[in-house]
Structure formats: C-alpha cells, structure tokens
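Researcher: Please predict.
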Amino acid sequence: MTTGLTGVAVRARIPKVVPLLALSTFVLGTSEFMIAGLLPEIATDLRITIPQAGYLISAFAIGMIVGAPAMAVLTLRMPRRITLVAALVVFVAGHVLGALAQDYTVMVVSRVVSAVATGAFWAVAGVVTVSTVGPGDRARALSVLLAGLTVANVAGVPLGTLVGQQFGWRASFWAVAALAGIGIVGVLVSVRNRDAAEPPLRIADEVAAFRRGRLWLALGTTALYQSGMIGAFSYIAPLLTDVAGLDTRWVPAVLLGFGVGALVGIIIGGRIADAHPWTSLLGALAAAAVLMCVVGLLASIPVVVVVAEVLLGAIAFIAGAPLNARVFALAGDAPTLASATNTSAFNVGNSLGPALGGIAISLGLGYTAPSWLGAVLMGAAIVLALLSWRIDRRTGSGSSR
C-alpha cells in the first residue's frame, strides 16, 4: 500500500498471476461443488441413495484433508510451476476416471484422486498469491484467488448442473476435465519458480509454525465455519424440490443466485477484511447462523427459502477472506504447510458437514436438518473466533477491529 500526493492511501494493484490462478480455482471449485446439484442424477444412475451420493462430496473433502499437507511436504522443494501443472494433470485424470465410472467404488476413487490434486494446487496457489503482495493486501489478494471459487458457484456449479441434467452428469465431468487442460496453459505462462537466490524451504521451519496455539484456533474456526456452510449447501437440491415443492428446473437458478451472492460476499470481504478482520468475520458468522435458522423454520415457503439461500451465499462468503488472511499472518515466514493445512481445515468442514447432514436425513429428520446443523456449527465457530479475538487483545497482537 502506498500514499498518493493527496495523502490518501493508494492500494497496490494485484499482480496478473493472481487472477490467472483464479481461473484454475474456478475449475477446481466447479468440480468440488457441482455434485450438490447432481445428487438425484448420480444416485439414479449408480443405483445408490441420495445420502450415499452426498458422501461423494465428503470423499472429495477427505482427499483434500490428507492430500493438501502431504503434497505440500512432498513438493516443498519442487518448482512452484511444475507442482501446479502436475496437480492439474492429475486432476484431469481423476475426472476422466469419474466420467467413465460405472459403479460407486470407482466414483469414490475418482473423487479422492481429484481431491488430492486439488489440495496440492490450492496450497501452492495460496503461497504464490501472498508472495506477490505486502502484508496489508493479503486478504484482498486472497479474495481475488477465492473469487475463482466464487465464480464457480455463480456460473460453474449451475452450468455444470444444467449440463448434467440435459446431457447426463458424465458430460459435466468431461467439461471440467477440458477446462482444467486450459488451466494448465494459464499456469505455464504466468507462474514463475522461486528465485535461485531465495533461501531453500525447510520442513522444520514449516512445522515450527504449528507450535502457536492461535494458529490451531484459526484452523478450528475455519473447519467449523465450512462444515456449517457446506453441510447446509450440499442438500439444497432435495430441499428445494421435496420441501419447498419447486420444480427441478429451479435448482440451477437458485444455485446461480447463491453464487451471485457469494461473489458479492467475497468482494466485500476482500475490501474490508484487511482493515476490519474481526468485525467482518464475527458479523458474517452470526448473520449466516440466523439465515440458516430461517431456512430451517420456513423452508416450505418457496419465496422465503430462495431469498434466504441467495443471502446466505453473500453473507457466508464474507468470512472467507479474514479466515484465510489470518492463517497466513500467523504462519509468518513458513506459509506453505500452513496454507495446505488451512485447505485441509476447509475440507474437514466439507467432509463433516455433508456427512452429518446425510446422517440426519437418514434418521428421518428431513431435508431441513442440515440447515439446523449448520446454524449450530456456525455458533461453535463464533465461540472459537471470540476466543482468538480475546487472546489477541490480551497479548496486544493482531487487530482488535
């Protein structure tokens, strides 16, 4: 951040490599979340139940939980560009396998393979992003990277759902594989490797960051937040059709509305999180919990549930920027493993949320149960965030805003 002739702070421009990396995160995000809109089609084709199909989201998340830190360690000394390209190549292979899958087991394997590759890409992409800007612009730069994920919700997920409904869910997997191939080209032309003059990265330095208790609190907050959000989101298709009574053609439209809201949220979060990290985080978590309660209470009223889901996309994604920026701030000069573990924390949520939602539905609690669970998990995230805020205030570190 610099100061202009008028004395007003002028924020530095985000380097071009970040939006180019965001194009690949768009593809990765589309793959991860489009399953939510295709649960009925996949369940029918593979002759499984909708909760079993929902566990494919959890399988992807588990692959990222294990894959992100493992690949961060294994590729720590590899050139960044090679690591990113290799991750996208494996991602393409995983989607080809998924498009050809004829049974549930092969489908699970394809999701895990794709997830490991996604985790490796996210870990390195996050480090590349924060290395291009100063500490005062980290949340904003990360919000640009996350915008790829958000646009995936705006355009990729509803389009993937629409393609899957019109041409079969396998067509969506072929389309994602093709787009990932384009992403490989983008990485090759935009990402540079570490300078030879830079000191080599050491695993011991990366592990040392995890001696800080505040880092674990931040990761726990991330996991609970994501668990609540994705758990409620994963069963949105049957919620709309079976509870609200909407036609299946409404599902892509509501997903689009959720995604547009998410894009607005990530933009707002990126603009305010560097200056007001705690206000943006705590406010977003509390508002998201309230909206989930509204969905749980009034899901049978179509207009209410549609509006609430769109607002939930906007509110929930405001929290993404401060959550990511805090982990990098606490990691200090050893961000690679912290970035990977933060990816794992998000995907602990991605795994736990759909699994808990599926269990609740299987117990006969109905398709509103994931929204109630989401509200409880958001409340738990608020508790951890408040504890972190109190520690910051007591030690005089970080921002109190």
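Model: Confidence is low (pLDDT under 50) at residues 1-10.
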